[in-house]
Each structure stands twice: as structure tokens, then as C-alpha cells.
Amino acid sequence: MKREIRRVLVTGALGQIGSELTVELRRKYGTDNVVASDLRDCGCFGLKESGPFHTLDVMDYNQIEKLVKDYEIDTIVHLAALLSGVGEKNPTACWNVNMNGTMNVLNVSVANKINRVFIPSSIAVWGPDCPKVAPQETPLHPTTMYGVTKVAGEVLCDYYVKKFGLDVRGLRYPGIISAETFPGGGTTDYAVAIYYEAVKRNHYTCFVKEDTRLPMMYMPDCLKATMDLLEAPFDKLKHHSDFNVGSMSFDVKTLAEAIKKYKPDFTIDYEPDFRQAIADSWPDSVDDSAAREEWGWNPSYDLDSMTKDMLQILEEKNKAGLI
Question: Which residues are catalytic?
Fold first, then answer.
């Protein structure tokens, strides 16, 4: 029997994905039925004004459980995590937040009979031995602590599926590009920052080399993939916490050329830093046939349509003094 989604708790709601996914969830399930939470205060994102918001430390089991009970939560979307760039500067904190937070969410879910849990993974699970087109099933030898936590998280979630019958599901997000939130410390954030800098300064200094090619996705497709998997019938899924999802792949030079189509005077130079080695350890693209077969995944945007939309949105924001 299909279990309906009625009351959702979102952790890490002020992050790049959370800030937009929370809005989408509230649009679908009702403003008062989606509880946003984050370690930070709500600030300027407007989530506090648009529905329930609570400050939450995901390393505190009791805080999570209190929100679950107070709001009669039946679905948890667990996005709280430290990303790859930030995680390499403090690997211990990355492990503690990403693993202990995930463990707490899973244990709260079992104890309170939560219907459904969404915990995303990442392309960071792969390492240098991964084929350039990453298969659904392949060795996982990450080179970052963030990647280590995501591999461990996938295995842990699958354990909870088998051990407790908990409905846990997740995507391996590629680099996510959005016009709504600023870059947040990830290795793929050059593909976000380049648009902001193109609009503000008509120039960008990139922290990876021009031939760096990685899997990417525009935020509308990211939201679509998340919602589609969240609502897919559990009994139709052969995989659970590790779905590859693809949309587009490009190198930085190609991205810059796509921007120059609309901003001919845009210039770019390159100053690779420690994130270059991280990017080099990841695949060029992914095989997402499992997601397409098991729950009908199909992206809508390519590089050109994304670039046109990103620049239009950011130009309007820049004129209004919002970036």
C-alpha cells in the first residue's frame, strides 16, 4: 500500500538545494505541512515567513525527535551536510556532521515509524579508478572526507532498508547550478560562481583548469529529480540510496563559450587550487539508466537553455541590487 506524504521535515533547509526544495515541497504539500530547519537562523531566505522554521542541530537526536513528534512528521528530507571544499579543511567536523547527523535521522525514523526518508549522495563517492562515464555499479574509492561520508551514508541507508524495512532513498547529485543561492563550498561551485561573476564583473577567475569536465545539473531539474524519486512507489525501486542522475556534462572552456554567446565581452582566466585534485578524481559524466528505468527520470535542460535562463535571472537580480 502506498504511504502518502503529509508532513515533511527538511534539515539543512538554508543550503543551496534546501532553500529551493523547501519552497517546492510547500507548494506541493502545503505551507504548514513542511517544516524547514537549519543550524543557522533563517536570515533573508524567507523560509521562516513562508512556513514553520526551527533552528536544528542534526547531531542532537533529541532535537530531531522533538520536531518529529511536535509536527507529526511522516517524511524526512535530510540535506544537512558539510560539502567537499569545506570538508577538506576540517575532515573531523565533516565526518561528525555528515555521519552522526545521518545516523540520528535514521534512528529517529525507525523509532517513530517515519514513512519515508530522503538522504542524497553525491558524485564525490567516486575516485580516480572510476570510469569516465560512471556506471551505476562501480568501485567507490573517494579522495575526500565528504566523499567518504557519502559512501558510508549510502551503505548505512541500504542497511536500514534491509535491517528495519525503512523506506530510505537518495540520489547521487552532480554539480548543481542555481540562480537563487550563492556558492556554498563545493568543488563544482565554479559552475555557479562563473554566472554571478559574468553578470557582476564580466570576468571570472576559475579555481579549476579549463579542460575540467564534470557532470552538472540545473536546479529545476534537481528539484524535479528529487520530487520524482521522493514520490516513486517504493516497491518499484531496485536501488535505494545511490541513484545516478545525469543531465549534462561540460568542461569549463565550453561553459565559458556558452556564456560568451550571450555576453560576448566575457573573459575568464584560471588559478587552480586544491579543488583541482578533487575534480580530477571524479568522472566526466554518469550512466543514469537505472533512474530512468526504475522511476522515469528525464531531465529538461541542456547547457544552452540553462545558460540563457541563468543569465536572464541574474541580470534582473543585479539591476535590483540583489547580488
Answer: 146
